[in-house]
Amino acid sequence: MPEKLFRAALREALDEEMERDGAIYLIGEDIGKFGGAYRVTDGLLDKYGEMRVVDAPIAEEVIVGCAIGSAMTGLRPVVELMTINFSLIAFDQIVQNAAKIRYMFGGEVGVPMVIRMPGGAGHQLSSQHSHSFEALYGMIPGLIVLAPTTPEDAKGMLKTAIRDDNPVMFLESMSLYNLRGEVPDGDYTVPIGKAAVRREGSDLTIVAVSRQAVLATVAAEKLEEEDVDAEVIDLRSIRPLDWKTITDSVRKTNRLLVVEEGWPTYGVGAEIAAGVQERCFDDLDAPILRLGGAEVPMPYNQHLEKAAIPSADDIVRIALKTIGRNGSGGRN
Amino acid sequence: MSDVNMPKLSDTMEEGTVLEWKKQDGAQVKRGDVLAEIESDKASFEIEAEADGALHIVVEQGQAVPVGQQIATIGEAAAGVKGKDKATEKPARQAKPKAEAEEPEQEEPEQPAEPEPQEERQQPAPAARRDDGADGEKASPLARRLARERGVDLASIKGSGPGGRIVKEDVLAAAGKGRERPAASERPAARPAARRPEQDVEVEEPTRMQATIARRMTQSKTTVPHFYVTVECQVDEAVKMRQQLKETVPGAEKVTMTDMLMRACALALQRFPEVNASWVDGHFERKRRISIGLAVPPEKGLGLLVPVVHDVDKKDLVALSIEARQVIERARAGRPSQGDLEGGTFSISNLGMYGVDEFNAIINPPEAGILAVGAIKDAPVVVDGQLKVGKVMRLTLSVDHRVYYGVTGAQFLGEVKRLIENPVSLVMPVPEA
């Protein structure tokens, strides 16, 4: 299987889908002539022309509003917001319109739209440009929220998102764009609502969101040195949640740690912890622990920023705590 | 039949080790016979028989057991009927160390044994009790389910999880299901091959005292927020006065600079009662007595003892000098009297005799201050604008910042400096209470 960059896998998905279906078009800031702030759409303007690759003004509410309207009338827009942080400007369009139109129109009209949004911290972009909004969008009925973590999933999940008839929030961790991995050529899809078991284990389950799933796999290797056999689940689909994969794993390992980069209060981890204890209380051998980012505006200072994001070592430490061994040092 | 239990020899003693049995198992002993030498966290003591009879040893030499646990019985011949199981259940009754046993008038009244909770005991427990441990055992949901499914009584299991929680492995073990591998929580962390103790390092087991020092100093330095204040004192007068005392005052021949500092600290502590205090569970505890510990090495081996002179404020310099010497001698010889190693409210550590200029001492909890004393040295000093050779000594106070603060620390140390530089105040008679 050929190896490709995460960003190239996304481009391949867009390219193949646009070729397959003439109703698909791209809209966003600097996605055409400039090729996208993260070079995901590079070359697509030349191939598909201005009608299908639209350089939009810096007005996120307008961009998303246009996309929703066009989706209602039969097109299949793929929006790129330069970062997830700017989606707050379009939050009204997303929550009030995109998520509700199918319901409010009695199912006669849908919004087959994808909003691609780079997010996450780690690049010294400071408080306003480093958000992880998995939980914010994950709580809204009517939206589908996906977060791929491998190049293969990036391509397969974006294709699935484009083909789905509902609005999909497609969260891309900025830190993963240069991740290299095997990506099949040609057409394939990855189903929505299906988590991936990245590593099988027997001592505890680590469910991780977005980039943290990559770190959790690193942490699992370190845990092996401590003679702890961790199972790592990459959530991939934040809404809907794949309860079966999670609970099957917890029933096997009896212990659960949930890791996300976003703030843990009311977070994805909180939701999974609550759902797991509802579904398999009698299988739990230890309290479910959560690990998330520090509950502060993301600091600009690189050392503080690093300290505010869960690291693989943090995951190891909390994992050891979950199984009743004291890890050493570090932030909780 | 009389039980011999591990005595509690100091405030901090949690367990003790039988260093040596002085009598054989089964030997006939008489009241007052020395039975064994016991090592506590601070010193070793001899314990004596409190009854006549045959000695039955329960705890072997070298074994550490908690305070109060039975270590032997004295009874009729062949008294070995009392098993070791009994030992852990028996309420603690203290055997008295030698020093105290000779002074029965100082004995505290024996605590009456706790009455048995008869009513509870008489309830037909198992039948009425739910088998899922819902009556109070801490167990994980999974452990409860497994216990239910396999008919295991959670009350009969000791939990190995955090805080004693009963977890899956405990129930499976109790149910007789052998484990395939130990629980993740019990498996030791794998150590990469960085250390090869057998080649490069000789591993030495600490004595009980050394282990206690390691534990308490770590506790102090990691939980007590220390800060330090240093002053330099001109001690020409104090040195001169000490010489005069030696030559002219009977009983004062052996007064040391440490004794004088102890007196100075007592007077300063009287003036600054906030220093004579502790931080305990979020409260200040002001001590009504002023008792000062002196850090000294034991006679044998490496270690640290802090014998305490009590009520220093109520004793004149000569009296406390004599008492300090006696307390130190008893402690260093490993024969402290009751109270010799406890109840301190402040400490002094003097390394001046080793030529140290100054150093920072670690506070001895729950005290809130310790004075580190450096050497007396000849040094250039400025007196009335003139450069002279004088005797100087550096004092460094370690402060528990939870208990008092920079200004108080500075004022307290300033007062100690003032007193030692004007030593006549140290030999003033102690006012009657």
Topology at a glance:
The complex is a heterodimer of chains A (332) and B (433).
Chain A: E1 3-5, H1 6-20, E2 24-28, H2 44-48, E3 53-55, H3 60-72, E4 76-80, H4 91-98, H5 101-104, E5 114-119, H6 134-138, E6 144-146, H7 151-163, E7 168-173, E8 180-182, E9 196-199, E10 204-208, H8 211-225, E11 230-234, E12 237-239, H9 243-253, E13 256-259, H10 268-280, E14 289-291, H11 302-308, H12 312-322
Parallel strand pairs in A: 2-3, 2-4, 4-5, 5-7, 6-7, 10-11, 10-13, 13-14
Antiparallel strand pairs in A: 1-8, 6-12, 9-11
Helix pairs in contact in A: 1-7, 3-4, 8-12, 9-10
Chain B: E1 2-5, E2 15-21, E3 28-29, E4 34-39, E5 44-48, E6 53-57, E7 64-66, E8 70-75, H1 84-89, H2 98-101, H3 118-122, H4 125-128, H5 141-150, H6 168-174, H7 197-200, H8 208-223, E9 226-234, H9 236-248, H10 257-271, E10 277-280, E11 283-286, E12 292-294, E13 308-309, H11 317-332, E14 346-350, E15 369-373, E16 377-383, E17 386-400, H12 406-421
Parallel strand pairs in B: 12-14, 14-15
Antiparallel strand pairs in B: 1-8, 2-4, 2-7, 3-6, 4-5, 6-8, 9-17, 10-11, 12-13, 15-17, 16-17
Helix pairs in contact in B: 5-6, 10-12
Main attributes?
A: 332 residues, alpha/beta, Rossmann fold, 2 domains, seven-stranded mixed sheet, 12 helices, 14 strands, globular, B: 433 residues, alpha+beta, Chloramphenicol Acetyltransferase
